Amino acid sequence: MVMVSAFRRLRPDWSLTEAVNADEALQVIANGAVDIALVDFNMPGTNGLDLVSRIRAVNPGMPVAVVSANVQDEIIARARELNAAFVAKPLTDEALGAFLSGAALRLRKSG
Amino acid sequence: MTSDISGLSEIEKDAISEIANLGVSRAAASLRQMVGEQVLLSVPAVNIVSRSEAAALVERGSSPRLVAVRQSFEGPFSGRALLIFPEGQSLELVRSIVGEEHPLEDIIDLEQEALAETGNIILNACLATIANVLHKPMRMSLPSVVRGDGATMFGVGDTSEGDLVLFLYIDFTIKSRNIRGFIALMMDLPSIVALKEIVREFIEGIAKQSDIVG
Q1: A106 is a domain residue
Q2: A44 occurs within a structural domain
Q3: Does residue B15 carry a pLDDT above 80?
Q4: How confident is the model at residue B214 (pLDDT cuts 50, 70, 90)?
Q5: Residue B144 within any structural domain of the chain
Q6: CATH number at residue A45
Q7: How much of chain B, in percent, has pLDDT values that exceed 70?
Q8: CA distance A66 to chain B (A)
Q9: Does residue A107 fall inside a structural domain?
Q10: Would residue B42 count as lying in a domain?
């Protein structure tokens, strides 16, 4: 809810697809229309880090951020190991904006 | 170092309060960021009490109808963390977070989801900080919203769990909105034994650091 409204405010011209669980997210990514993923750590049946490792298996270079209030050192370190950003909640426009700008830059570079 | 009947010495109580205080301060900073208003905190109270005494503590001075966001945590010690409000104040809290511009009907629709997410942010801030300070990773469950009296919140009469718990609570106030509530952590007896050991290591760590500095 907060993430969606912050995203729309920051990047009104980008299109946004929401997925309610990990399988749906992987399906949307498999369909090929996703450039960047924002993954909440909390989700039904699994967690955001497990989803990111499944995304990495098919998409090693996609810019991905794990978004969570669970700021435990181990969780942040695990996100880094998976080459994902960690964005802390409460989500701020600054933090989300910085991740999205960095992601856009990486996508442009990789063409 | 004296040990009271509850099995926690004064220095252990102080250390637990101090660690909890770090967690709750981070939680208050998160809440402050969400509501945009100053959040005042009390000094943490740490006690080993029965579940019904814990229930009475959170009902004291407020209506017995409460709403709470509850998360379980597991690690070297396990228990439950709760963010508790008098029931009448949860709508006001949600309104202060999502903004005044939303009509009341929308706020009522959003209440459950917004409360769960607010609780998730605040309780995670608190628990993750404690886990980081102690260097002990913890797993947190998804948040659930519970309504009822103190006995419902703390499982009074639930025979599957022991009656005595380590109960730690802090009350907070969002002054300009007249919203107040509690953050409570509750652990059962096996966890208290594990926590005492971890706190002992923590105190020794501080003593070593002071030796280096001194």
Answers
A1: no
A2: yes
A3: yes
A4: low
A5: yes
A6: 3.40.50.2300
A7: 93
A8: 14
A9: no
A10: yes
Closest residue in B to A43 (Cα–Cα) = B142
User: Based on the structure, what is the number of domains in chain A?
Assistant: 1
Cβ-contact B87, B58 below 8 angstroms:
no
Give the mean model confidence (pLDDT) for residues B162-169.
86
Is the minimum CB–CB distance between B118 and chain A shorter than 8 Å? no
Residue A68: give the domain boundaries.
2-101
Residue ranges of the alpha helices (H) in chain B? 10-35, 51-59, 90-98, 104-134, 150-154, 189-213
Does residue B19 fall inside a structural domain? yes
For an interface test with B, the pick among A72, A74, A87, A91 (most B C-beta atoms closer than 10 Å) comes out as A72
Q: Please check whether residue B4 lies inside any domain of the structure.
A: no
Q: Are B125 and A69 inside 8 Å of each other by CB? A: yes
Range of the domain at B42: 10-213
Cα separation, B116 vs A13, whole angstroms: 30
Q: Does B125 touch chain A (CB under 8 A)?
A: yes
The count of domains in chain B is 1
- Residue B1, token pair as written in the block: 């170092």
> What token pair was written down for B178?
């007249």
With beta carbons less than 8 A apart as the criterion, state whether B30 and B41 touch: no
Tell me: pLDDT of B169 over 50: yes
Closest Cα in chain A to B34? A90
Q: Which of the four pLDDT bands, split at 50, 70 and 90, describes residue A39?
A: very high
CATH number of B33's domain: 3.40.1550.10
Question: What is the model's pTM?
Answer: 0.88
CA pair distance B52, A54, nearest whole angstrom? 45
Please give the mean pLDDT across all residues of chain A.
Answer: 95
The whole-angstrom separation of Cα B132 and Cα A87 is 17
In a domain, A108, yes or no: no
Instruction: Measure in Å the smallest separation between the Cα of A50 and chain B Cα atoms.
Output: 14
Q: Does residue A77 sit at the B interface (CB-CB below 8 Å)?
A: no
